[in-house]
Design goal:
With 182 residues, this protein is of the alpha/beta class. It contains four helices and eight strands. The chain has a five-stranded parallel sheet, sandwiched between helices. Strand 4, helix 3 and strand 5 form a beta-alpha-beta unit.
């Protein structure tokens, strides 16, 4: 289904805004953690993993070190499995060692907070991080669980009925975040 068919309402971030937001988040990660020596980036499938890879590249250049990153499929840890159809095409989790590390979970959009909660539960299957931080490209509010991101690219107030879709060059051929009618 094309964006036009989903009733595009507004573009909230273009390619330059996404690039600048990720650069700012990378700087904030370095500042908050006094470097990235014990930091691991873990992207939540299916767009967070792409953003984590981009952040890892930015941090590798900034800090002149190898930045470890991976992807996490939190589907089995969601509390709404009975409400969602199972997507069997999701890539499997693939994480570096997280024991004793500061893990920055990366996602495209935070809404109710349930995906972030599920990701924290899923992360524990892979080890025991020293700390978990959360980075999101867009925070649209409407939290149902007490989770707040540590790093936010942009706050975008939305109606409950609206959706934000993040389109990324690697998967969609364009970098853009848009609001579509629900």
């Amino acid at each position: 289904m094309s964006l036009a068919e989903r009733r595009l309402k507004a573009t909230v971030m273009d390619a330059d805004q996404i690039r600048r937001a990720l650069s700012r988040i990378a700087h904030e990660i370095v500042e908050r953690n006094s470097g990235v020596e014990d930091v691991v980036l873990v992207g939540i499938v299916s767009k967070g993993d792409v953003l984590a890879r981009r952040l890892a590249l930015a941090l590798t250049k900034m800090e002149e070190c190898t930045m470890h990153f991976g992807r996490l499929d939190a589907t089995k840890h969601r509390d709404d499995l009975h409400l969602r159809p199972h997507d069997g095409d999701r890539p499997a989790s693939d994480l570096p060692d997280v024991d004793g590390k500061v893990v920055v979970l990366v996602d495209d959009v935070i809404f109710h907070g349930r995906t972030a909660r599920a990701a924290m539960d899923a992360l524990m299957d892979f080890g025991r991080p020293r700390a978990i931080q959360l980075a999101v490209l867009i925070d649209r509010g409407h939290r149902e669980v007490p989770i707040r991101p540590d790093y936010v690219g942009k706050n975008v107030p939305t109606a409950e009925s609206e959706r934000i879709e993040v389109l990324l060059q690697e998967e969609d051929g364009v970098d853009q975040a848009v609001i579509v009618a629900g």
